[in-house]
């Protein structure tokens, strides 16, 4: 689809969707207060962070047929409307049930536009331009997370209930998106499209899921480490902003990095992932080491995630890339949902005592991914020599 001067703000409109993608963790700083006031266990409180992933997965699977019926633009708009509306339930009722329902609504809304945030880039743009935009898209996720964490941190001093009001800002993105992005008519009919889930698609799903699981686990567990070291009065949201800040900066430079390194980009990201989780597992109880690990986690993700989405555009037909993108986001949300359970399971199985020791499990997983990509890298080099 050709670019048009008429839609000169289209890129910004598409990218603006990503501001409200990584929003599950916005309430992380309020978990201690929610836990104490409502009499919850730590596990119950942490579950609220990952809860939206359940309905996000359902909505992602439904987003393609919904988009076939009403168009991508209306599907995205509906999702943003639900996210904005979810802000008001905890304000109306100060109960666990109201928060629970709000989080389910939030997740369903995010799921409706989750995959489209990447697919719209592949629809309108190609090649290095698309790869660069995927990097910037990743940065916009972090910009959204950083901005909302900052706002939530300020509001939390008044009341933990008001933290949920930050989600109402989705209405601003809804307006901007509708003003700048035209509707997209699907060129295919799902009934006629023969799509098969390949091993490569499964690999993308698992890889993306592990990355989001890692980032979510780092975010969730930071609340425990920070309050142990600095006390319950510390503004956790402000300290957590080191993660989105580093991710945002790296994402903006992804296009240049990828043009320079090409297939080595993913290898660099995975090496950083391995080293980061080893450091976190051994020295993570030091809050400042933990913050460094958060920064490195964000840098690693900003190198690997855009690479995956750019790779999808290269190795799949345009008609199938949307479905693959949706499946990748399904993997992301499964990973986000299982983050706390993964850490707790490793602690239980290996009888680990420290709050960060279990992160060694992520280092092992990333070593496996590195082996796959390094083998592929060597194979391509050998082929070119022949």
In N-to-C order, the SSE pattern is HHHHHHHHHHHHHHHHH
- Biggest beta sheet summary: none
Global mean pLDDT = 90
**Rounded radius of gyration (Å):** 20 Å
**% residues in beta strands:** under 5%
User: What portion of residues is helical?
Assistant: over 70%
The gross shape turns out to be: globular
| Oligomeric form | single chain
Global structural class = mainly alpha
Low confidence ranges: none
Terminal residue distance: 37 Å
What does this structure look like?
With 386 residues, the chain is mainly α. The chain has helices at residues 10-16, 31-38, 42-50, 52-70, 72-85, 89-92, 96-114, 116-124, 127-155, 170-180, 199-230, 236-240, 242-261, 264-283, 287-315, 318-349, 360-385. Helix 2 packs across helix 3 (42-50). The mean pLDDT is 90.
Keywords, separated by commas or semicolons:
single chain, 386 residues, mainly alpha, globular
Short note summarizing the structure:
With 386 residues, the chain is mostly helical. It is built from 17 helices and no strands.
Topology:
Blueprint lengths: L9 H7 L14 H8 L3 H9 L1 H19 L1 H14 L3 H4 L3 H19 L1 H9 L2 H29 L14 H11 L18 H32 L5 H5 L1 H20 L2 H20 L3 H29 L2 H32 L10 H26 L1
Helix pairs in contact: 1-10, 2-3, 3-16, 4-5, 4-7, 4-16, 5-7, 5-10, 8-9, 8-16, 9-13, 9-15, 11-15, 11-16, 13-15, 14-15, 14-17
């Amino acid at each position: 689809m050709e670019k048009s001067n008429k839609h000169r703000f289209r890129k910004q409109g598409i990218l603006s969707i990503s501001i409200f993608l990584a929003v599950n963790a916005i309430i992380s700083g309020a978990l201690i207060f929610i836990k104490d006031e409502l009499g919850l266990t730590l596990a119950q409180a942490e579950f609220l962070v990952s809860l939206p992933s359940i309905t996000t997965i359902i909505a992602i699977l439904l987003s393609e047929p919904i988009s076939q019926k009403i168009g991508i633009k209306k599907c995205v708009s509906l999702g943003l409307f639900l996210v904005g509306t979810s802000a008001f339930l905890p304000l109306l009722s100060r109960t666990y049930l109201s928060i629970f329902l709000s989080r389910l609504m939030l997740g369903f809304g995010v799921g409706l536009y989750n995959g489209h945030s990447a697919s719209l880039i592949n629809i309108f743009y190609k090649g290095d331009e698309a790869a660069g935009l995927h990097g910037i898209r990743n940065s916009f996720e972090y910009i959204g997370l950083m901005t909302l964490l900052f706002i939530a941190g300020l509001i939390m001093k008044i009341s933990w209930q008001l933290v949920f009001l930050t989600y109402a800002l989705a209405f601003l993105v809804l307006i901007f998106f509708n003003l700048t992005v035209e509707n997209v008519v699907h060129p295919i009919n799902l009934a006629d499209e023969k799509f098969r889930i390949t091993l490569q698609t499964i690999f993308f799903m698992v890889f993306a899921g592990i990355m989001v699981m890692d980032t979510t686990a780092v975010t969730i567990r930071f609340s425990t480490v920070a309050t142990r070291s600095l006390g319950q009065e510390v503004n956790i949201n402000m300290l957590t902003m080191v993660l989105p800040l580093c991710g945002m900066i790296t994402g903006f430079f992804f296009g240049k990095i990828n043009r320079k390194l090409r297939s080595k980009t993913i290898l660099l990201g995975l090496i950083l992932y391995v080293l980061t989780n080893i450091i976190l597992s051994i020295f993570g109880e030091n809050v400042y080491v933990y913050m460094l690990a958060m920064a490195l986690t964000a840098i690693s993700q900003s190198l690997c995630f855009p690479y995956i989405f750019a790779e999808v555009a290269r190795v799949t037909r345009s008609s199938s890339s949307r479905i693959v993108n949706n499946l990748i986001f399904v993997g992301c949300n499964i990973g986000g949902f299982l983050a706390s359970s993964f850490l707790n399971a490793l602690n239980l199985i290996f009888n680990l005592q420290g709050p960060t020791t279990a992160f060694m499990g992520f280092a092992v997983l990333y070593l496996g991914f590195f082996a796959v990509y390094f083998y592929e890298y060597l194979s391509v080099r050998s082929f070119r020599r022949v």
